[in-house]
Design a protein that fits this description.
DUF7119 domain-containing protein; mainly alpha; 12 helices
């Protein structure tokens, strides 16, 4: 991934409720968000109990905050215990290594993706498959999922294609979608200027928009 590309992994501390503690995203009070500190024995015990309950009842799949809390507990437990196997043994119940690994990866997604999970725009079950992909392709799959309203099955298929060696463009094309294709609405004046600039430069509106966005978004990370 290019050095100036946005981060594809979590940058905030493991277990910290950066998204879950934002009432504008979750609709909850910030002090209701549980923080899991992998270096605190009592907090780690809470994480272990949370993971066990989470593994035995993921029926709250429609509650994105509930799912993110379970993912945070999984990640913190792994960090505190030192391995997926040790974390699974500590949690017990139905908490398998595979279960904990999948949800820990969701917690490790970058903030820009977790925001959409918290808002219900990316289902937690879909986030599990997005998290299987590494690097910039992870971000591109998340954005394509939003742009094209991809189903969980389609996201899983694209993720598998990328992990099997396909480019994100080819994996999406196999599902009938094009990377970077989205619909936007601009106001009348901007629309007129966009068309004028494209005509004067002997190019198309997409090129003008791309050049303008690349310039405007250089500092986004």
């Amino acid at each position: 991934m290019p050095e100036d590309a946005p981060p594809a992994d979590r940058e905030s501390p493991v277990g910290k409720p950066v998204i879950r503690g934002d009432p504008e995203l979750t609709g909850q009070r910030a002090d209701e968000a549980v923080e899991f500190d992998p270096d605190d024995p009592e907090s780690l015990e809470l994480a272990a109990r949370t993971v066990r309950r989470f593994s035995e009842n993921t029926a709250g799949a429609d509650d994105n905050v509930y799912m993110l809390r379970g993912a945070a507990a999984c990640a913190a437990l792994v960090r505190g215990e030192g391995s997926y196997k040790a974390a699974a043994e500590r949690a017990g119940g139905d908490a398998t290594v595979s279960f904990i690994r999948k949800w820990s990866r969701v917690h490790d997604l970058p903030r820009s993706v977790r925001i959409h999970v918290a808002k219900g725009e990316i289902a937690p079950t879909a986030a599990k498959h997005i998290a299987r992909v590494a690097g910039e392709a992870r971000l591109l799959l998340a954005w394509a999922a939003l742009d094209h309203d991809l189903t969980v099955r389609q996201i899983r298929s694209v993720a598998s294609g990328v992990n099997d060696g396909a480019t994100i463009e080819d994996a999406l094309a196999a599902e009938g979608y094009r990377l970077g294709e989205l619909s936007i609405t601009v106001d009348r004046d901007a629309y007129c200027k966009l068309r004028q600039r494209a005509a004067i430069d002997a190019t198309d509106p997409s090129t003008v928009v791309t050049d303008a966005l690349e310039s405007a978004l250089d500092d986004v990370s």
